[in-house]
Amino acid sequence: MQAKKKDFSEWYNEILESAELSDKRYPVKGMNVWLPYGLKAMNLIDAATRQYNEEAEIEEVGFPVLITRNQLEVEFEHLKGFEGQLYWVTRTGKEQLDIELSLRPTSESAIYPMFSLWIRNHADLPKKVFQICSVYRYETKHTRSFLRMREFRFYEAHTAHADFQDAEKQITAYMEIWSKLNSLFQIPSVINRRPDWDKFPGAQYSLAVDSIMPDGRTLQVATMHQYGENFSRTYDIKYTDLNGEQRYVSQTTYGMSERLLGALIGIHGDDKGLIFPPDIAPVQVIVVPIPTEKADVNAYSKKIHDILKSAGLRVKLDLRDNYTPGWKYNYWEMKGVPARIEVGEREVQGNTLTISVRGIKGKKTYDLMNLEESVKKSLKEHFSSLSERSGKVLKENVKEAKTLEEMKGQAAYFAYWCGKRECSDKIEAATEKPCLGVSVSHPGKGKCIVCKESGDRSMFSRTY
Ligand SMILES: [Zn+2]
Hints:
Translation Initiation Factor IF3; alpha+beta; BirA Bifunctional Protein, domain 2; 3 domains; binds zinc ion; 12-stranded mixed sheet
């Protein structure tokens, strides 16, 4: 495998193929096939997303994939943002459709006409829904598995509130959902408020979670938008307030996608392959018997496997007899399995087990009596080492810059910025790093790096 530090891009392509996450040979460009191992990981991400939405009282819905041209054209600014990327369905069999239909690029224009039917009075608010579905955008840039696709797995939450203040609380709630998710993922990231010229079409403002990839460039992995009344006025989403007056709702959205999986792979993996955090690992524990004539290693391994399985762990037993134990170690390391249990003659005779933790050197031997406990302890060790490495990535890759000259060395920097486009244009021209906006997660005040007027800590970075 390609060394990750030397050529991240090449390493990423190789690992996706060797670990069998997705298959890009499907005949439609930009649309990959999800392979079982990749889909398992994505489903675990989705399961966590569902759980945290449930806790935040955002309810799951399922909307059709097709949207009429009329639904889309209601909000012109929003449509303009996607115009060139829409897939149109115009024919059925030989007949031309009388209404042109588009595959959803995101679901504002699918959901909001229904909101206007569902929301009648203040008791219907807040209305909070989400869906996990595929969306379609005709990307003209080079497509890349999980990072930039024409069909991709999308999570989108949409909420409607009695007023702007209540909608603002929802943005805070979104950030809490992100923080819960990221406590599982450990993706080094910064939340930035995008400059006005770079916000989502139709939004009052947009927050984005920018993750720091190993080469220092950033990858946007989640966005949260405050719509205010921009959409409710065009989609006519009104309610009767306590005084009997008609008012427009204020709205928000939160979006994430399979890019999260791309980020997890890119950030945590190493030269041996993937490294999955335990909560997202399709296989958490692999049991590998070391064949010998002196003991029944397979039966002993099976016993270990069954105990762990009934304890609720995602465990697999590798009994393939056409591969050596060493080959299997490499194989499961490449697949990013957090813990490996080796079972040889010594283990069977001593009633013990030997555990290796992915990303940590050395092995430890435990008593079989403490099987479940030792495995859980090993998964914790794995998670702490991964989280420690991830913390370092942010520190090392996003340095604080005081001058434009200082901003040339690496891919991402924090710098104080006054908020004027003039200044961020100057920064971009001098450093080739566009402005990602004022940092919400790492706030600070100082003098603008260009004009010296008062400014906020902001992020400038090359992006994916
Ligand atoms: Zn300035």
